[in-house]
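Quick entry, no commentary yet.
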Amino acid sequence: SGITAANFTDTNLTNGTKYTYTVAGVNNAGTGPKSNQVEATPNPALPPAPSGLSAKAGDKEVTLTWNAAAGAATYNVYRNGAAAPVATGIAATTFVDKNLNNGTKYTYTVAGVNTAGIGAKSNPAEATPNPALPPAPSGLSAKAGDKEVTLTWNAAAGSATYNVYRNGAAAPVATGVTATTYVDKNLTNGTKYTYTVAGVNTAGIGAKSNPAE
């Protein structure tokens, strides 16, 4: 009562609850007739853009993390600028986007969501998923022949090809070997040669095997 202005803000209400209002004028003669009813349902402000979005690449997946946005109940994740989110209803501040293509760059944004709607999107973050480096091949053996050595080893998971190293040199004597065997030729009979093998994929060169000579 006693409102002299032609407006009023009703505060400390419950978001999501509908309120109905009427207004009546008052003077010395008393309270006049009430106005027509109006109604409104208060809602929180849209969430601000989440900050600190980061993207970490894995094997066919990207792990996203971000800072909580005030007032956000859940989050939407957007990929490669698409209008439709790749994930909705995320209650945590992390998400793992799976079943991706290794070697392809992906760009992400995140937005907070509450009963008012979808808030502003975060700054973008990008990552290019790649497989883990191959483990060291096991079972390397070396069989001597006339001016040559035949190497065999067990396949290392995730390897696309193999590098063969001789006598501890940093540079491989052979690269792009697709089989699990290799013949090193044009050697000097009577000279001892020591070999290691490493698996290779799009992530890089994996650990070297135990030596064989």
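second:
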Amino acid sequence: KDCHGNVVPSQLVHSTTHECYWRKDTLFSARVPALGYSLYYVSNVEDTPQTAPEGDVFPRVLPVTTPLTANSHDGLMLQNEFLSIKIEPYSGYIAHIFDKRTEKYLTTDRAAVPVVINEYYHDAWSHAKNFFTDEMARFSDAEVSILENGPVRATVKVVSHYNKSTLTQYFSLTSNCDKLTVKAH
């Protein structure tokens, strides 16, 4: 709750220390004045209902409900009040990003496609090489899962592979934010 007793939407989220200590972190949006501070109170879950204030639209991960065809499979929709992003289930690629305000697609083809670039003719600093366009392969066999799905942030985790390499991508949408955040490991 804020200092006036108003409920502030919050959620438990994945912590980077989860693998070692099996703990989660708490995420909430705070309003802090410039060069100032704000006071928030944490109470038991039973004492603080996690409901949306009237009119708020929270980020969500939803299953795609379009029919299966040879070229289109079910996947996940990551969306908030500004963006709707379809993630393909087997590749982990972004099929499209749709801006709800302008009602236009922001991508014309797949996005966030992890590729393997041929760097054979480059030295460690890529002297006189300004372009990395020689694509050798793509990461594939993706495992797509919902990591977070709450009132503050929704995150989809994509783990894909190329030979013995593993790439983990985290696609996140936050409420009241018109940007898709992508973290890659």
